[in-house]
Amino acid sequence: MTVALIDYGSGNLRSAAKAVERVMGALGRPDHVTVTADPDAVAKADRVILPGVGAFGDCRAGIAALNGMAEAIEDAIIARGQPFLGICVGMQLMATVGREFGDHDGFGWLPGEVRALTPRDQSLKIPHMGWNTLSVGDHDHPVLAGLTDGHHAYFVHSYHFLPEDPAHLLAVTDYGGPVTAAVGRDNLVGTQFHPEKSQAVGLKLIENFLNWKP
Amino acid sequence: MLKARVIPCLDVNEGRVVKGVNFVDLVDAGDPVEQARVYDAAGADELCFLDITASHENRDTIFDVVARTAEQCFMPLTVGGGVRTVEDIRKLLLAGADKVSINTAAVHNPDFVREASEKFGAQCIVVAVDAKRVDAQTGEPSPDGGRFEIFTHGGRKPTGIECISWAEKMADFGAGEILLTSMDRDGTKNGFDLPLTRAVADAVPIPVIASGGVGNLDHLVDGITQGHASAVLAASIFHFGTYSIQEAKAHMLAHGAPVRMDDEIKGPSR
């Protein structure tokens, strides 16, 4: 099995790749993770991970700058149904539109928009940064298996994804009101938090993703 | 709810830990990566490396340290010390750092913070603010002074810049976080400068990490509850084994500063 971690010049890919490698090693599987900017590698991959830090529009432009990459991703995960994990802005890009520094089209895999966090308590700091508790409710999504209400994950963001269909909302956290923590449908899943920075909780989620057969 | 963060900080000189506790199971107590692993396992919320390497030739040692740490520690890692150019930041992030801390370079050229934030995102730009009390009339350093001023070179060099407005400016320029160190308290073990911490934390819309002066566990609590900081950074109380991360967190939790305790997770990856 090959996991393609898409490199489009956004952020710290090494830790994401190392976290996946760690889990693969622990699972004793001969899989490997490829950090790649090559659409052909994505087209051949069995699983796709899209990380992302920074602004929504910059990330979208970063992917667009790789000739054929957006098409390769869509072919792999929409046409062929390979499992997909979006992390942070990589998750937000699943939306129809992002409203950070103007409106930018997302991939539109999950209807909804990415909007600024507006905590009710004005004294709460933005970005929402640090360890916050997850509420997974009664979802039994395989990628969230073993994660329960009260488990902590590491967040750092100022915007979040509001899916139109409540069924696409898999987990929330609270920061002066509900904040989207995980979304998904079918073979697509995304986390606002950073599993690669969330110690045991994050490694468990990565393990679930690698074992996922949607 | 969002938890207060406990951040141990390691001073690293030419790839070696300057002060570090000799935990019993460490093969090499001077190896920052081994220390990082201990803190990771102990439930530290983040880790900070301060690179104090003076000689230019040996500055690349930090990249190897960061890369080896990133292979083993799955928590946020901030690296500071000598970050002066966009290229410095890019190399640290590529090696595996999640955030970089900019100090003197921000004072010399505030636009560097803006440039860095636009290029890499505010989430990875920490601005380190070293503040010292000065007499409001004379401007001379005074531990009882009512005015806070920015100092560089380990607190020796005054800049004349007022601290609160400086922190606000750095937030405005795109810093994602402020690492605030009281140079009056640093190394004293007398606790954070709480009025300073609170003044900055209440003034800026971004998180503030309190630093400088931690000598006991009540100080950590005070930094959060009275200083209004989002995170507390400490070095010596952890390195010398005075307190463990778990002791610190249990104490904070019991005294009104909510922190993340261990999450029970089962799986082959642990």
Summarize the structure.
The complex is a heterodimer of chains A (214) and B (270). Chain A has 214 residues and is α/β, with parallel strands linked by helices.
What fraction, in percent, of the residue positions of chain B are helical?
25-40%
Shape of chain A: globular
| H-E order of chain A | EHEHEHHEHEEEEEEEEEH
Q: Whole-number average pLDDT of chain B?
A: 90
Main sheet of chain B, how many strands, which sense, barrel? 8 strands, parallel, barrel
Quote the average pLDDT of chain A.
Answer: 93
Radius of gyration of chain B: 18 Å
How large a portion of the residues of chain B is in β-strands, by DSSP E? 15-25%
Tally of separate helices of chain B: 10
> How many distinct beta strands of chain A?
13
Topology:
The complex is a heterodimer of chains A (214) and B (270).
Chain A: E1 2-6, H1 13-27, E2 32-36, H2 39-44, E3 47-50, H3 56-64, H4 69-79, E4 84-87, H5 89-92, E5 97-98, E6 104-105, E7 112-116, E8 128-133, E9 152-157, E10 159-163, E11 169-174, E12 178-185, E13 188-191, H6 199-211
Parallel strand pairs in A: 1-2, 1-3, 3-4, 4-13, 5-7
Antiparallel strand pairs in A: 5-6, 7-10, 8-9, 11-12, 12-13
Chain B: E1 5-13, E2 16-17, H1 32-42, E3 47-51, H2 61-72, E4 77-80, H3 86-95, E5 99-102, H4 104-108, H5 111-120, E6 125-134, E7 147-152, E8 157-162, H6 163-172, E9 177-182, H7 194-203, E10 208-211, H8 217-225, E11 231-234, H9 236-239, H10 245-254
Parallel strand pairs in B: 1-3, 1-11, 3-4, 4-5, 5-6, 6-9, 9-10, 10-11
Antiparallel strand pairs in B: 1-2, 6-7, 7-8
Helix pairs in contact in B: 1-2, 2-3, 8-10
